[in-house]
């Protein structure tokens, strides 16, 4: 095996000195005495061609170090791999991506975690619209706070909410890059120091356009009150209004969740936004809608007309746009989610306790001390409230107690005779 004394005395005019301990490894002289270049010559097991792999310069790479490197490469060759090709693949994998490429990779990783595909698409759309034109082609390690500030500046004051959402998404991409070793810090952390102060509240809650609760009976009677199995969109929308549930909860409703005897719809935790099981007392009209849906699908209560799958959220949105459902937001039609807000306003205007209304909406109790004492969902206390809401939505005048009982008896008799 080559000795240090031989390597230290190598001259430009000398021939390459074989390593002696690794086949094909030799120290080739450089232009300066005592310096050389380690080269491993081998036949590629892939291409069957002779190749030269440079392993560094001596004395920077010592004899002991080059021995380890060369032996490792010889091991790859024996296993049928070409060391230079494997190195090229590794370098390609470690290549620092551009911001646009990194955003695409992160988006693909996050997409399965979004329940709503539309939200996942909006996540990448804002970056494509506002950010990629400015920094999309820059590698993560070259992006500085000034680059991000320049990208956000056009929307920073005019579209403050959009700007803040976009900033958070940029931060997520850069954090992903930082975690993978593509950059040494997250430049988004200091970007606001380069931008003017936003006016008013920086982040405001963007409410879903809602219909004024006083308008709902007229809207329901004109567009929704049907007993036609083929009109699934109208049926589910009326059911959604009557139960004050979320769109996804109604679209995924299953027959196994309905207790006909107790008149309860029990939604399992895995289908709830807050991952906590929720019970809904069913009003007379809600039960009638369910009865009309019998026979459409073995599992789903409101299946899509085509494919017998879960109805899409867009079906409800499209219907509300088609009928131009009025809302309290100028220039916007009411949304399916907005009816929850309408219900909440109706509860307040009609003197129902906050506790009952919040439980009907399956909202969590924010105050931890208060939450500790809330060990019941107040189901039976909510039942008359939901029936009153149903009567209001269906345009039934508030009756006296006896009349209301007579109506219930009449409804149940008709249901049994169907």
From TrEMBL:
Alphabetical list of InterPro entries matching this protein: DNA_brk_join_enz, Integrase-like_cat_sf, Integrase_catalytic, Integrase_DNA-bd_sf, Integrase_DNA_bind_dom, Integrase_recombinase_N, Phage_int_M, Phage_Integrase
Keyword DNA-binding in record: yes
Key words of the record: DNA integration, DNA recombination, DNA-binding
Record field: transmembrane: none
PROSITE patterns the record matches: TYR_RECOMBINASE (PS51898)
Domain Tyr recombinase: 206-386
Keyword DNA-binding: yes
Any single Pfam family the record assigns to this protein: Phage_integrase
Family: Belongs to the 'phage' integrase family.
Protein name from the UniProt record: Tyrosine-type recombinase/integrase
Organism: Paenalcaligenes hermetiae
